[in-house]
Design goal:
By secondary structure, this protein is α/β, with parallel strands linked by helices. It is built from 18 helices and twelve strands. The protein is globular and about 80 Å long. Keywords: Decarboxylase, Lyase, Pyridoxal phosphate.
Length: 512
Amino acid sequence: MTVPTYPVETTTPPPASTTARAHLLHGGSVEQYRRTIADGVDRVARRVATVDRPGTGITPAELAPLVDRVDLDRPLGDAGAALDELEDVYLRDAVWFHHPRYLAHLNCPVAIPALLGEAVLTAVNSSLDTWDQSAGATLIERRLIDWTAERIGLGPRADGIFTSGGSQSNLQALLLAREEACADAIGPAARAELLPRLRVLTSAAGHFSVQKSAKLLGLAPDAVIAVPTDARRRIQPAAVREEIARCRQAGLVVMAVVGTAGTTDFGSIDPLTDLAGICTAAGVWLHVDAAYGCGLLVSPTRRHLLDGIERADSVTVDFHKSFFQPVSSSALLVRDRRALRHATYHADYLNPARMVQQRIPNQVDKSLQTTRRFDALKLWLTLRVMGPDALGALFDEVVDRAADAWHLVSEDPRFEVVTRSELSTVVFRYLPTGPGRELADAANLHAREALAASGLAVVAGTRVDGRHFLKFTLLNPATTVDDVGYVLDLIATHAGRYVHDHVAAELTCPVG
């Protein structure tokens, strides 16, 4: 007799894609979304509430093995476990810009309404390239561009676009300037002949992104000419005028002059009115890099420091510096919206030319980027909650604090200071006396490294006239004069010990 066989019932696991869908934000996962985000926010809040120094001083050699051991092909499957792991590889050793003794770079503490905007924009995930991906977001960004242009005073024909940061804004500005300079070069041969002759004049204290942009734009290796600065580290208008004349005599074409409203190292503001007059007379594009100094646009007391910026052809602003916004939030503004046509390309699948006739506003028509975050929302909510006067008062406060710090350093015989900033930087160095004076460069480098290793404070470094200096960049209204004094004492202790040890070693070293 044959025994019948029956198929064995087995439980088939659901497809991996079905499981994965549970991690996507949709109508059925909103409770998971709430719990997960709340857990992340709570962990960050606990860190912010308890950190007692801006950093831990961890080195790359110490942290890299922890990160390298993470197996990205074996998921933890749980957000809580992933956040536990994140504590070890990131949060524990993060650099905290909200701490009052973070005095290094142009990183600011961030406004809470902007963080609300960040949470909203990442969840909705609008892309600011076309109307059918962004709708109201497009109009909000355009309104903020108009508002910023009004603050600058660019006039009714102004326009602009949000960017990833000052470097991208400067790149696009110089792209527009290049294309305007090439407007009369009809045909590939004429353009090829002109491009090697284009020149850009910028301050010797200006941002490196000008040189980088020139390279990306295919200009000659010597296309960027660094114009000398005065004792306050501001570009010299007379030297700009002379350089334009010299270039013309040499058969070169100055396509742009770049003025700076807040140099990274010195916080110096170029004489913008003088530069505008020179550029107007010479028919040269004037770009103002106000990535740092744009906070003056909302200052109740210092707006006059930007006088002349309204005559620029293009302006860079970084809201993620002096408007207390999270990275990234930047924009490029132009006085004549027609110039933005040089960044316009039409794709049938995205923004066909017929949409222009239909008056459909596609922001990709103005941008170097296609897919682009709705970063404007952060500034929008900040303005709607706090208002521009409150932001300006915060920026005024850090500028006032920098003035106090400058007085403190300049009156301290242990240090020498370079120049007084119009914004919120102080460039200085420890200056040994006696036989250790020649060790000044090495002592300041050592002091900065030792300070960073301790985690007690973070300061920046730079070179001035070939010598090593230290730099405070104040963007935190919570920083006090006592904080500055405390950090100065730490620097003097580290640098002084370095000098003492090396001088002592030289004295005890047998001759020959």
